[in-house]
Amino acid sequence: MAPTTLTALALTCSLKPSPAPSSTDKIARQVLDELAAHGVEGDLLRVVDFDVRPGVETDMGEGDQWPSIRERILAADILLLATPTWVGHPSSVAQRVMERLDAELSETDDEGRPSMYGKVAVVAVVGNEDGAHKIIADCFQALDDIGFTVPASGGTYWNNEAMNPKDYLDLDRTPDAVASTNKKLASNAVHLARLLKQAQYPPVQ
């Protein structure tokens, strides 16, 4: 397959505004590094740094900064949604991102395809409590409904043992299982994104 130039955008959904250290940023940057090894240019936005208004429209009016984030998503081939675990669920910031992305179901191209068709989505989760599998499943379902395509092994995560408050940032080294999963996620995401860029889904009849 001929090389295809790809770009990626990581939306990290930490509850901590910049420049506070963030475990969610850490795992997202690790995934971006793995994507870069395949020639993918990536960038990261910490969503809480923006005024993203509640709602399910592409633009919720004056002061809403979601439209600028949306433009970055539209320009990217791969979206990484990264979230911490809070009481067994994705963060409220991640939930808001998915709610805002719901508006894309009404946005279509000239052939009737939803605006996110042809884009790949992957998910990363960190937390010092369990819940990662459920969070990834919920995010996958939402992203698929919106029109993204999820690759095989498209989720990566780290959870500390239950009732032991340790953060991903506190680890001396990345666990081998997480590192290998990040690598596999990136490889499969790039493979799928290249396929979709060369052969988009058929027009909606």
UniProtKB/TrEMBL annotation:
Coiled coil: none
Regions that span the bilayer: none
InterPro entries: Flavoprotein-like_sf, FMN_Rdtase-like_dom
Top-level taxon of origin: Bacteria
Boundaries of every NADPH-dependent FMN reductase-like domain copy: 9-154
Record-given protein name: Multimeric flavodoxin WrbA
